[in-house]
Amino acid sequence: MEKNTGEDFATCPYDNAHRVLRSRLQLHLIKCRLNHPHVELQKCPLNQLHLVPEAEFERHLMSCPDRKIIAHYKYVDEMKFLKHDPIESEENWDDTESGNYNPETYARSNQIIRKPVGPPSKRKAFRHEEEERWQQLNRL
After folding, report:
1. In which residue ranges is the amino acid composition biased (Polar residues) (predicted)?
2. How many CA atoms lie within 13 A of 24 on its CB side?
3. Which domain, by its residues, includes 44?
4. What integer best gives the mean pLDDT of the chain?
5. Nearest alpha carbon to residue 32 among 51, 52, 16, 12
6. 84 in a structural domain
7. What is the distance of C-alpha 25 from the center of its chain?
8. What's the predicted TM-score (pTM) here?
9. Which of 39, 52, 47 is nearest to 65 (CA)?
């Protein structure tokens, strides 16, 4: 079994006596919020697990440890790592002259088994047409 170091634990903002594994903190906060309805805490917009008293909220926003993560993505020079050279291809996806695909037409002209649908009289006529279609396809 793995041993947990002190860094794996966090202190609950609702009750300082609660020490919780960081992986379980979110669930703990939900339960603890119900047990401490009188405690008014604001959620940090940078990390929802940061619950801070209203008096300290502005100071927390200026010194939040997760602020650097957001600032990094906000001010990166147009996301340099996403830029790449254009990929040359001979495919043209804008060509729309091929027409629409009709599965019924395709199934009629190829050796595909089709299922009869409808009342018994139409199913009987369908089976008769299918036999003729298969014979014709097998002659080709």
Report:
1. 98-112
2. 11
3. 7-77
4. 84
5. 12
6. no
7. 23
8. 0.47
9. 47
